[in-house]
Amino acid sequence: MVKRRGKTIATKFINLDDHKRRKILNAAFREFAEKGFEQASTNVIVKEARIGKGMLFYYFKNKQGLYEYLIEYTLDVIMKDYLQRIDPSERDFIKRFKHAARVKMKAFLEHPDLFRFSGTFMLDQESIPDRLKPRMEQLQEMGNKIMYENIDYSLFRDDVDVEKAFRLIRWAIEGYQNEMKQRLDGANFATLDFDPYWKEFDEYLDVLRKSFYS
Amino acid sequence: MVKRRGKTIATKFINLDDHKRRKILNAAFREFAEKGFEQASTNVIVKEARIGKGMLFYYFKNKQGLYEYLIEYTLDVIMKDYLQRIDPSERDFIKRFKHAARVKMKAFLEHPDLFRFSGTFMLDQESIPDRLKPRMEQLQEMGNKIMYENIDYSLFRDDVDVEKAFRLIRWAIEGYQNEMKQRLDGANFATLDFDPYWKEFDEYLDVLRKSFYS
DNA sequence: AATTAAGTTGACCAGGGTGGTCGAAAGGGA
DNA sequence: TCCCTTTCGACCACCCTGGTCAACTTAATT
Predict the structure, then answer these.
(1) Which pTM does this prediction carry?
(2) Contact B210 A176 (CB under 8 A)
(3) In a 10 Å sphere around its CB, with 0-12 CB exposed, 13-18 middle and 19+ buried, how is residue B168 labelled?
(4) Where along chain B do its domains lie?
(5) Which phi and psi angles does B186 have, rounded to 5°?
(6) Which CATH architecture has domain B7-151?
(7) pLDDT digits (tens, 9 = 90+) for A18-47
C-alpha cells in the first residue's frame, strides 16, 4: 500500500488490536497531559506502553504526528461519548446540567486519561495545530448549543439576569466537580460507590433551584 | 562568618539589593510554576535573572534549597499581603468576599509570578517538603477562619442550607475569577482599566445576594 | 518449502541539557 | 598592600532527546 499524504498516515496504528492500541493511547495521553508537548518524552511513552521505540515512529511519522492524532481522537470522543449524549430537549437549565454531569462522569470513567489530556489543550488554544483549530471551534460551538439553547427562561426568578444566572450556576457546578476531582484524587474508581456523591451533588442543585428559580 | 545550619543559609541572598533580588525571585517563580520542581531548569533561571550560574549556588545550597526558600517566602507574602488585609469584622458573607477579592487582586498585581507559583503547590500537598507542611496547614486554617468565621447567618434565606450556600457562592466567585484570568491572559495589567471588570463582578455579586439572601 | 511482505525490536546516533563545581578575576574596605 | 566577599562562566560527568536502521520474527502467499 502506498502512503497517500494526509489522512492515511496512521492506518497501521488504527488496525492494531484493541488492547495494544489502548495501551499506547493511554501512555501517550498521560505523558502529554503531565508534561505538555515539548517536555513529553517519547521514550517514556514507549516504555509505559511496552512497545519498542521503533514502533511509535512506524505508526506515526513523528512526535508531532502522534500529538495531532491524539487531539483529533480526543475531539471525536468528546463529541461522540459526551456532547451527543446530552439531552437538549430538557428545557429546565438545572436539570439539563444535572443530566450532563452524569453523562460527563460516565464518559470520564470510560476514558480518564483522554479527559485529563483534553484539559491541557482546551484552555490553551495556542497549543493546537492550525489544521485542528476549526474542529476545535466547531466542538465548542456545539457545546454551547447543547448546553444553552432552548432553555425555558420562565423558570427563573424575574428579578435576576438569566444570562448571569446561567454562568453562576455553571461556575458553581464546575466548582463542585473540581473539589470532587481533588477529594477523590488517587481513589480507585472501579470499586468506588458514587451514589453518596451524586446525592450530595443533587442537594447542591436543589439549593441552586431554590435560589435562582421562582 | 560561619554558616550555621538551617536558617542562616540564604542570608547572602536576603542582603542583595532589591532590584536584583526580585529579578532572581521572579525568574525562579516563573520557571518552577511553569515546569514543576524536577523539570524546572536552574540554567533557565540564571539566564532569565541575568546572573552567572555560580551565583545561584552561592546564594542557595542547591536547587532544592532554592525551591524551599520560594515556598517559605510565598507563604509569608500570602499571609501578610493577602489574608491579613482582609476585614474579618464584616459579617455579611458576600461583602466580605467582595472585599477579599479586591485585596487578592491587589496582592496579585504586586506579586503576579509569586501567585502563579503558589497555585502549583497549594493544591498538591505532596510537592511540599515536610518541614513546611505545618506552616502550610496553619495558613489554610487561618484562611478558613478569616473567610468563614463570625458570619451573620441571618442574612441568608432560611430555606437553604447556609453551609451549602457558602460553598456555592465561593465556587461561583472563583469561577468568575478564573474566567477573568483566562480572558485577560497576556494583557498588560499596568495599562489596563479594571473598573469595568469590577463593575461586572459586583453585578454578579448582586445576583448572588438576590438569590441567596432573604 | 520457498519467497515475500509486514511487523517489531533496541542499540545507536549526534546534539543538547542537567545540577553543580571551581579557578580566576574583580571589587571594595583597611 | 592585603584580605575577604562577590561574581562569572567554562567545565564536568552524566542523562536524556527524537529519530534511524539493520537485524530479526511472524504471517501470508505462492
Answers:
(1) 0.92
(2) no
(3) buried
(4) 7-151
(5) 90, -10
(6) Orthogonal Bundle (1.10)
(7) 999 999 999 999 999 999 999 999 999 999
